[in-house]
Batch of 2 targets.
Target 1
Amino acid sequence: MVQVRSAPLRAPGATASAPEPVTVPARAPRRTSVGVPLPLAASPLRARNAPEQYDDLAHAWWDEQGPFAALHWLAAARAELLPAPSAPGATLVDLGCGGGLMAPHVPAGFRHVGVDRNAAALAQAAERGVEPVQGDVAAVPLPDGCAEVVVVGELIEHVEDLPALVGEVARLLQPGGVAVYDTINATFWARLSLVWVGERLPGGPPRNIHDPRLFVPPRRLAALFNAHGLEVEEQFGLRVHAPSYLRFLRDRATPVHMERTRSLAALYAGRVRRAR
């Protein structure tokens, strides 16, 4: 068993309380019949998109060769969309922050606030300088207009109530504020490449982590943004840079670069701005 300290679960600016210990079970890697370690994956007994999978994998957030490897690649790509803060201390709210993988990529000067439901993940985010707030991304316990930037990374395709999430993004943003996002399209190619095949590839998403019925067509997402006063400034596809992925397969140490593409058929990303 591994003992970590939980982050103080509070809104920004509140007085921190003494953290409570959170026990995260350590899992031994699965092995083949000849003793070769296999990547850890979510329990096959879990339903698709079950929140309990993040408890199963709580140890793995910062293992860059583990089941969340692709989240590290996407965090680096997402950072390219982030603006610099307008002033020191400007607030960036990271919805569904998990273990805080955006922390190394947030531009200097931002106050990085992370919102997640999982206490073990928030504890790890707090260790990397993220202000932790435990809560539901569809009902965020933060005030209106508190954020200059909202990050919605690899979250949209996990949310049952998408209109509520988009409404919270709009509510949190100050006038002129920016939200950056990435998610998965509702296409056959997305299901094939990111679920049926992707879940079986090294560096791919953990088994059963996605539920394809929650994948979102770009037009539907853009319509929801527009309905809440958020204008899409840019939108593009993302794909793995093949040469860097082949190097990752060879040494498991080379970070994989995500490159932009015109096709939105699988992964896609973008930036929206709230009207002033």
Target 2
Amino acid sequence: MKLRKICVPYEFTTESENAVQTAVAIASKTSFCTIELLYVIIHYTPGVNTGGALNIASAVSMDYGITEVGKITSVGETYVKEQFEQIRNKYSLSNVPIRFRIIHGEDGINFADVYTQEVADLIVYGAENVKGAEDWFLASEADEIIRKSKTPVLIVKGEKPITSFEKIVFASLFEDVTPEVAFTLRYWQELLGSKLYFVKFVESDSHSQYLQAQNEMKYFAEKYSFKNYHAEAFESSDVEKGILEYANNIKADMIVVMSHKSSSSWLKSMIRSSTEQHLANHSNLPVLVLHE
């Protein structure tokens, strides 16, 4: 794998700005990477209920007092281009090429479909935390992007962008990690200059389980020639909470997980997908999802 292009869906929010800064920090690690900011302008049909959807075109139309749909779109696109130029100028000293692209879509367009159809080596998406039990009933856009993307997805959370990646936590069962994911993980570690923290969760405080988990992680590290890593077994009955607790304890900068394809076991598939979903929705740390 080589990082040539990063796609950043941009929505004129603090989270999107954090995603851009994070993408610039990553792209600056290599001299071959371009960042593409992607924005979708929706063409609403007059008189049709849009369900409260927000887009920059409608916001601009309110500022300028314009009501005709064609003019709304025209002013909206001009405004977006002006804002993108300001972003490009802001990061001009980083020497990271930043391009922008505007996509026009009809009301009801699926944003995740648009983002994941882009040809890119990484998608960096700035998202808000989902509160309470909302993610049990409503799939967040971040979750949908993870589910539909075939390329790695980095979900950026928190009030500040992440510009340092000294400590990366990789939580896994390890015996089911594919060679592609292992080599991709090693690429990211080497690119970012990070120390990897391998974590495997055990169900009880059993010496034999701890020893088996340590051996499995050591075998994994030696098999794929990992260096600069630490392996640790961690007791937790809740995988999601365990990952977040461990990452916070060591003051990690990022969490990496592997997204699994649909399993033959419905229950196993549900457990795995919900763990990825909950981390994407609840973690304040960036979550990088690698696809098997």
